[in-house]
């Protein structure tokens, strides 16, 4: 359903403030120990030992194809970290895990849109996934994570459906049968509406039309018109230059153009001596016995 390419994981862009703060804390711990009783060498050994025993306090490990959202409890700011071990501040806490391989998707069937001269029935598929491309993938992930999945899907459906509705209203039905062309025009690489949606949600959205056709009533009318046209053309062709008499041409044309017209050949040889014969459909063969029935 989706044409998603292989996922390339970005590297975490650790803010300089985090590195500087962690170094400052380590130096402060060493200085405190040094000023107490231990001296420079033993203070450094103790600091390294403490850091080794408390790595979970200042690091966050992320599994492959995932991202974590961290919250700075002092500034109330969020940031995203990606796969691998990442440095964090002791007062930064884990908030949410994002699976970057998961897509929000939906198949919308029997969506009806009004063209200039008829109603059209459309089936389309959309997928929405978090965007990890560009120079600031962390900001996009934080933005994507700020929305509930159902909220993103509802916003996507509204944009996609309004785009289709606006487009169909400017075209005749016969101009709306090429689903690949419509997909490229409305939801291709140069789609301003998709670009705006992705920018507002930190996402990558894709929309593909799987069907675009006349509604059932219109299709029946078109089929009837097509059969009538085919019937007239067949009669004219058969009767041209006196090839077939008009009655026979009409009979043949009906059989060719209309599915509900059938012809049956009934052989009644050997039934001459029956007084009467009734057949389905009301066909009756009268008796050939002139004497009439016996009394």
List keywords for this structure.
295 residues; alpha+beta; three-stranded antiparallel sheet; 9 helices; 42% helix; rod-shaped
Textual characterization of the structure:
By secondary structure, the protein is of the alpha+beta class. 42% of the residues lie in helices and 25% in strands. It has helices at residues 16-38, 40-53, 55-58, 137-145, 149-168, 179-187, 192-201, 216-239, 246-257; strands at 59-72, 78-87, 92-99, 104-114, 119-130, 203-214, 277-279, 283-285. The strands form three sheets. Strands 2-1-3 form a three-stranded antiparallel β-sheet. A hairpin with a 3-residue loop joins strand 7 (277-279) and strand 8. Helix 1 packs across helix 2. The protein is rod-shaped. The termini are far apart.
Offer a concise description of the structure:
The chain has helices spanning 16-38, 40-53, 55-58, 137-145, 149-168, 179-187, 192-201, 216-239, 246-257; strands at 59-72, 78-87, 92-99, 104-114, 119-130, 203-214, 277-279, 283-285. It has 295 residues and is an alpha+beta fold. The strands form 3 sheets. The protein has a 3-stranded antiparallel sheet with strand order 2-1-3. A 3-stranded antiparallel sheet has the order 4-5-6. It has a two-stranded antiparallel sheet with strand order 7-8.
């Amino acid at each position: 359903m989706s044409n998603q390419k292989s996922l390339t994981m970005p590297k975490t862009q650790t803010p300089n403030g985090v590195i500087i703060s962690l170094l400052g804390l380590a130096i402060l711990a060493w200085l405190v120990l040094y000023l107490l009783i231990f001296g420079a060498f033993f203070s450094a050994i103790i600091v390294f030992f403490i850091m080794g025993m408390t790595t979970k306090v200042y690091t966050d490990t992320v599994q492959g194809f995932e991202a974590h959202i961290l919250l700075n409890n002092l500034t109330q700011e969020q940031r995203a970290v990606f796969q691998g071990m990442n440095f964090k501040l002791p007062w930064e806490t884990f908030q949410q895990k994002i699976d970057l391989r998961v897509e929000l998707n939906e198949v919308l069937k029997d969506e009806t849109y009004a063209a200039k001269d008829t109603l059209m029935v459309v089936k389309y598929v959309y997928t929405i996934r978090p965007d990890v491309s560009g120079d600031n993938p962390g900001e996009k992930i934080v933005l994507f994570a700020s929305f509930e999945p159902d909220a993103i899907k509802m916003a996507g459906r509204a944009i996609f459906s309004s785009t289709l509705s606006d487009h169909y209203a400017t075209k005749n039905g016969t101009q709306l049968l090429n689903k690949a062309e419509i997909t490229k025009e409305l939801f291709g690489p140069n789609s301003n509406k998709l670009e705006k949606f992705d920018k507002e949600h930190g996402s990558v959205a894709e929309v593909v039309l799987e069907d675009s056709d006349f509604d059932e009533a219109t299709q029946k009318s078109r089929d009837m018109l097509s059969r009538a046209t085919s019937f007239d053309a067949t009669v004219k062709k058969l009767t041209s230059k006196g090839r077939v008499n008009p009655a026979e041409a009409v009979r043949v044309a009906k059989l060719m153009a209309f599915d509900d017209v059938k012809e049956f050949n009934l052989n009644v040889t050997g039934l001459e001596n029956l007084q009467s014969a009734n057949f389905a459909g009301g066909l009756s063969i009268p008796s050939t016995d002139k004497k009439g029935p016996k009394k």
